[in-house]
Amino acid sequence: MTAPKVYKTEAIVLKRINLGEADKILTLYTPNLGKLSAIAKGVRRPRSKMGGHLELLTHCSLMLARGQNLDIITQSETISSFLPLRDNLWRASLALYAAELVEQLTAEHVENYPVYKLLLDTLHRLCETKDGELTLRYFELNLLTHLGYKPELHQCLGCKSPLEPTTNFFSTSGGGMLCPACREKEPLSQPISLNALKVMRFLQQSDYPRASRVRISEELSRELESLMRHYIRYTLEREVKSVAWLDRLRREG
Length: 253
Hints:
By secondary structure, this protein is α+β, with helices and mostly antiparallel strands. It has 8 helices and 8 strands, in the order βββββααααβββαααα. A 5-stranded mixed β-barrel has the order 1-2-3-5-4. A 3-stranded antiparallel sheet has the order 7-6-8.
């Protein structure tokens, strides 16, 4: 069956790149088509009717025409612009980090509705939450799960024994935990406190309403962030660009 020449989809705008004098190439994440790239013609012109509907982090409804190389956006309508993100630099930066993770960790044209729903829900949550960093840790752990990178947090990767309630170690290369005895075979693994392991397990297993009630100290928050950064960097084989910006904002208060 031949694919229709024109189709409609919802999408979240993950990335925008200038093309020529007036166009942009948009990276979109959709509920049923996965990640795709499309051209928005004339969108940079001041009188463009589509420009305001295709900003970064916009949830929109699109009509697209199939093109020879890239599909072309012919109509756009905003479903949600997530205004609280646009009024707060820190919230916006957390949201851009989440969008970058989805853009970097997913392949084009691979449907993954749970990833779409997770990103959409996370953007709404970042508009409302008082603890955006906990929301981000929940997002990271669940995104990794949906993409097949779920870390093993309950038993040792080496000896397969259940973990004892002590300081264990996280292996980025193995994607999970090592007990103190097996850690000797992988000296680069990171120590993880018992509280950090408990929080990671809880975030991995709970729905968001339960997970959002967790209260953690600043020290524990930084430990969790460091562990997730190392694992995501290893998985991507490169640094997430928006991490440096988040660090700068935090330093500057």
